[in-house]
Amino acid sequence: MKVLVVGQGGREHALLWKLKQSPSVEKIYCAPGNAGTELDGINVPIADNDVRGLVKFAREEGIDLTVVGPEVPLTLGLVDELEKAGLKAFGPSKAAAMLEGSKVFSKQIMEMSNVPTAAFKAFEHFERAQYWVNEQTDRPWVVKADGLAAGKGVLMCANKKEACEAIHRVMVTREFGVEAGANIVLEECLVGEEASILAIIDGKTIIPLEVAQDHKRAHDGDTGPNTGGMGAYCPAPLITPDIMDDILRRVLIPIVHTMNMRETPFKGVLYAGIMMTADGPQVLEFNVRFGDPETQPVLMRLKSDLAQVLLACAEGKLDTLEPLEWDPRPAVCVVMAAKGYPGSYPKGDVISGLDAAAKLSDVKVFHAGTQMKNRSVVTNGGRVLGVTALGDDIAAAKRRAYEAADLISWNGGWCRRDISDKA
Ligand code: AMP
Ligand code: GLY
Question: Angle, nearest 10°, between helix axes 306-314 and 10-20?
Answer without folding.
Answer: 100
